Amino acid sequence: MSSVEEFRAEIRAWLADHLVGEFAELRGRGGPGREHEAFEGRLAWERHMAAHGWTCVGWPVEHGGRGASLDEQIAFHEEYALADAPARVNHIGEQLLGPTLIAFGTEEQKQRFLPPIVAVEELWCQGYSEPDAGSDLANVRTRGALSPDGSQWVVDGQKIWTSLAHEAQWCFVVARTEPGSRRHAGLSYLLVPLDRSGVEVRPIVQLTGTSEFNEVFFDGARTDASHVVGEPGDGWRIAMATLGFERGVSTLGQQVGFRREWDALAELARKNGAISDPLIRDRLVQAWIDLEAMAASARRGVDPSVGKLHWAAWHRGLGELAMDVCGAASTIAAGETYELDDWQRLFLFSRADTIYAGSDEIQKNIVAERLLGLPKEARV
What we know:
This protein has 380 residues and is an alpha+beta fold. Helix content is 44%, strand content 13%. The protein is built from eleven helices and eight strands. It has helices at residues 3-18, 39-51, 70-82, 91-104, 107-118, 235-246, 251-272, 278-299, 304-326, 342-350, 360-371; strands at 124-127, 143-146, 152-159, 170-176, 187-193, 199-203, 214-224, 228-229. The strands form two sheets. A four-stranded mixed β-sheet has the order 1-4-5-8. A hairpin with a 5-residue loop joins strand 2 (143-146) and strand 3. The longest helix is centred in the C-terminal third of the chain and has 23 residues, at 304-326.
């Protein structure tokens, strides 16, 4: 048995032994559009994972991880999804900020921030998008300036679409720290606490009726001067590196979740008779083919922007197909509180798939300019 197979067997056995009792009730809970589900229970589960060494498995051992290889990390995410384990609450800290600090942080920053991420004691959110700087991140207007004594950064501005900010204690913020600078120049990557004065978090109600992301307002918010990652003014390079980590190996576990959704939808089509419609049957087959192609592309290391375009369109299309499989019942919400079922929630939330984590329009520009070498889009 190879080391990867041994690693896969180890995590599979551990999940089987520990997703029991109160944790068994968390199976399948959470995920996109359902982040509100059993949050405290999922937090307790992830801290239980940490106590047994199953968080941050791809991090180097010296930083609290297992030093898992790329193939072992793939095995971990696949087995986690196959076990129907609950959606993770520490993804942003573990998969985005942690690798960024390991690559670019000072030793002081690593010692301060990495252990609480491994232990799931501090949760993080991502302060990138703004009302006038969403996909065009270089247009950020949130400002950061050193205090007169040089001991702190003072942050003013607004961030939006800030996932899980209402549950997080910290936010990594891209802010303009050089007055008069434009576009990619003059930005800094600041680590800002959210539980202090000068910070207001306002949840945004989504189409699903829940609130997974937020507006965050900074009005004289302060953080230590040492809490800048990289050099002041070098924030764009650090921010782009974080985005690379965001679209990394963890997305392979996402493919398993997609497969589970497809399987459930195909079974529903069999039960309610929708499978007898040749158009529905053809769309289900095409969705299966596209999912196989997506998984194959991910395993051979397709460019992250190409992968994002693929999975976002596929998942949104699956939500549309689900409504057609459900038929007229898809238009009816249950009870006086208009509770959505899983398929209705999938359809509504997946409308955002082609917007968040980089809109389709921006991803296509990246593919055209950086992969194909086409002329850059003219800017006003």
